[in-house]
Write a structure and sequence with these properties.
alpha+beta, Arc Repressor Mutant, subunit A, 6-stranded antiparallel sheet, two-stranded antiparallel sheet, 15 helices, 10 strands
Length: 390
């Protein structure tokens, strides 16, 4: 049965989780305002990501120029060759010696992942999944596991609010204060690197903690110059927006670099709307992603591959099934409360505030019960949440 509807009924995280768990093969078409993105799945893994309405600056050729991997002249020459030969741009660039095949694949992987995470900022739109054969292009990108994409989203949800406190403008520049310590020699785990959805990025020491110097920090540190702002560092580091901003925060906290703001402007004046939107949007995704695995697994096993409306209309009469779903629904509500606290500075007075904030739908405060969940705020960061008495 086809999976289609609006993103208000079924979020991006829900869709990715469901397709990944069902190990479906086909094409997911997403549209929001003037944006259109196709995500191709093969056996539940993301095989390709295509933005039909990708902005000029996000085209792979322009990304390579902004990253200072190729020159504008080399791009123009390659585009002309592409028009004459009808070859793929990557093949032309590699055969011309302007870039290695491995480097080009890493940039294609970065382009795909950045496109994926922008989807999480969509608060409206439509989606449609069509089961059909999909050819994997492993020369373009390494397939991404849907679960890994969601886990990366969880990490962003946790860390973006902290990052935005200091890296709050795209026009910030930086000064290096002291050299970095020598890197720690560790034996690389090639199996783990290949298995990771973002294998082209070496994982940093103590990832998730803002107190270590890893590969990302070293790459960003080496790219810093007085003329390069955050926007340019994101381009030349080839790490993506989130990883670059996190590395900059680590370097600031460890006092390896000092931030500078445009002359005559305070750190908060005219703050970057892009960075702020990224943090808020990913925060809302956190509530949508929390505990989806167990909930959807049970729904899929009992109901099959149903549309969201059919899933919402279904009910479980078995008390055991109700308790199972309720435990995971409590985690979902708790996650929404935490996102609300991150955005507002305190937990809500009542659960209805989560609906008003767009974090949950009204039925999610009752499902699978008829009575609403019991909630009481104890302090600005403390609350009690219990299932209704049955």
């Amino acid at each position: 049965m086809a999976l289609q509807g609006t993103l208000k009924d079924f979020g991006i995280a829900d869709i990715l989780q469901l397709i990944g768990q069902q190990q479906k093969t086909g094409q997911l078409y997403l549209e929001s305002k003037e944006q259109e993105v196709n995500v191709f799945f093969k056996d539940g893994n993301i095989a390709r990501v295509e933005s039909i309405t990708r902005k000029k600056k996000d085209l792979i050729g322009n990304m390579l120029v902004r990253a200072e991997i190729i020159t504008e002249a080399q791009l123009e020459e390659s585009l002309e060759t592409q028009r004459r030969t009808l070859k793929r741009l990557g093949d032309v660039l590699v055969s011309s010696g302007f870039i290695t095949a491995d480097r080009f694949k890493k940039m294609m992987q970065l382009q795909a992942t950045e496109t994926l995470y922008r989807l999480f900022s969509w608060d409206a739109g439509t989606y449609a999944f069509k089961a059909e054969p999909v050819e994997s292009d492993t020369e373009a990108i390494t397939p991404l596991r849907a679960e890994s994409v969601l886990m990366e989203g969880f990490r962003m949800v946790d860390e973006w609010p902290v990052i935005r406190k200091k890296i709050n403008r795209l026009d910030m520049t930086f000064e290096c204060l002291k050299p970095l310590p020598p890197p720690v020699n560790t034996e690389p785990d090639f199996d783990a690197a290949f298995d990771d959805a973002f294998a082209e990025k070496k994982k940093d020491e103590n990832k998730g903690e803002f107190k270590s110097v890893g590969d990302s920090e070293r790459r960003v540190y080496e790219a810093i110059s007085p003329t390069r702002d955050v926007r340019k560092l994101i381009d030349v580091s080839c790490l993506g927006e989130f990883e670059t901003c996190k590395a900059l925060l680590n370097l600031i906290n460890l006092q390896y670099v000092r931030p500078y703001y445009p002359e005559g402007q305070s750190p908060s004046a005219g703050g970057s709307a892009l960075l702020a939107k990224a943090g808020q949007s990913l925060g809302r995704v956190g509530a949508s992603m929390a505990a989806l695995g167990a909930i959807l697994f049970l729904a899929v096993q009992v109901l099959g591959f149903l549309s969201p409306k059919e899933m919402a209309a279904s009910s479980f009469a078995d008390p055991g099934a109700q308790r199972f779903i309720s435990r995971n629904q409590l985690k979902r509500i708790e996650a929404a409360v935490e996102v609300f606290r991150l955005e507002k500075g305190e937990v809500p007075e009542r659960l209805d505030a989560l609906v008003e904030a767009g974090l949950l739908k009204p039925e999610e405060l009752r499902y699978p019960w008829r009575e609403p969940y019991y909630y009481r705020r104890l302090a600005s960061r403390e609350f009690v949440l219990l299932p209704p008495l049955q």
